[in-house]
Amino acid sequence: LDPLHLEFIKNLYTDATIAIKGANGTHVTATWSVGVRQGDPCSGILFALFVEPLLRSVLPVLPKDAEKTAVNVLGQHITALAYADDIALFAPSIG
Length: 95
Description:
Elements: H1 3-13, E1 17-21, E2 27-31, H2 42-58, E3 71-73, E4 76-78, E5 80-83, E6 86-89
């Protein structure tokens, strides 16, 4: 991702606020500080740009016995599922 586009994305989320309008016409504003905006067209793009490459870099370095906790689907060991902005990782419990 080139610096210009990265700066653009940062600016979208820097000091972001939301406004909620009540039935009686009053509204409340709050700072948006975690996650991507609900319904934002950029959400899928941000997922593709950042989370998908992160998963691709982490999954190959899983412990050799990770397949023990994976879900077997038609002979394939699935250790993670990702769709839109949801991620499911299959990992052993510690303890």
